[in-house]
Design a protein that fits this description.
The complex is a heterodimer of chains A (107) and B (124). Chain A has strands spanning 4-7, 10-13, 19-25, 33-38, 45-49, 53-54, 62-67, 70-75, 85-90, 97-98, 102-106. With 107 residues, chain A is mainly beta. Chain B has strands at residues 3-7, 10-12, 18-25, 34-39, 45-51, 58-60, 68-73, 78-83, 92-102, 108-114, 118-122. Classes of the chains: A mainly beta (107), B mainly beta (124).
Chain lengths: 107, 124
């Protein structure tokens, strides 16, 4: 199975900060990466697919990028509603696999 | 609006079977592939199975050793997951999710909408 190594596992930041979360795939997965946000007690929410395309209704403060097998989620100008856990997922080869998650909390 | 509502979870003894359902509304169910994903108590996310819009193509996970069977009834706008020989380690929140197709060989299905989830607890 393809491994998605996500870092950091946790991250503390202040309101207004810009943060970056990274996932590294264990093999070439082209741009078949999605990013999800999950708040406590809620279902995940889809943010990005194809490494950098935002789903409808997702604010432009979220952005994604790819460099080879490294994928990045960047969140700018953090607001209280952005503090959550974020997951990457590859959907190149089944079983689609997720990163371990990054918990973003307020410093 | 897109809605996915799972049901069928609960507390079940090891070795028993369970069938989860996911009723879809707000979109043309028969046009979309669908997924089952679970989240363990440790918050690990696992894709379990996916099915094409017409049910003819399925993606499954080897480590589940055939215990999990995905199916769909497009006439009822419903996705199912049959889980047999339940184990304690199957305890998790189970989500259904809608897929969007990326045409190719094989086709890929990325997730755009999630249900609220249903909890399955396997315990004696």
């Amino acid at each position: 199975d393809i491994q998605m190594t996500q870092s950091p596992s946790s991250l503390s930041a202040s309101l207004g900060d810009r943060v970056t979360i990274t996932c590294r795939a264990s093999q070439d997965i082209r741009n078949y990466v999605a990013w999800f946000q999950q708040k406590p007690g809620e279902a995940p929410r889809s943010l990005i697919y194809a490494a950098s395309t935002l789903h409808n209704g997702v604010p432009s403060k979220f952005s994604g990028s790819r460099s080879g097998t490294d994928f990045t989620l960047t969140i700018s100008s953090l607001q209280p509603e952005d503090f959550a856990t974020y997951y990457c997922q590859q959907y190149h080869i089944y079983p689609y696999t997720f990163g371990q998650g990054t918990k973003l909390d307020i410093k | 609006q897109v809605q996915l509502v799972e049901s069928g979870g609960g507390v079940v003894q090891p070795g028993k079977s369970l069938r989860l359902s996911c009723v879809a509304s707000g979109f043309s169910f028969s046009d979309y592939p669908m997924h089952w994903v679970r989240q363990t108590p440790g918050k690990e996310m696992e894709c379990l199975s996916a099915v094409s819009y017409d049910g003819k193509r399925q993606f499954n996970v080897d480590f589940l050793k055939g215990r999990f069977t995905i199916s769909r009834d497009n006439s009822k706008n419903t996705l199912y997951l049959q889980i047999d020989s339940l184990r304690v380690e199957d305890t998790a929140m189970y989500y259904c999710a809608r897929g969007r197709v990326v045409i190719g060989t094989p086709p890929r299905y990325y997730i755009d909408y999630w249900g609220q989830g249903v909890l399955v607890t396997v315990s004696s």
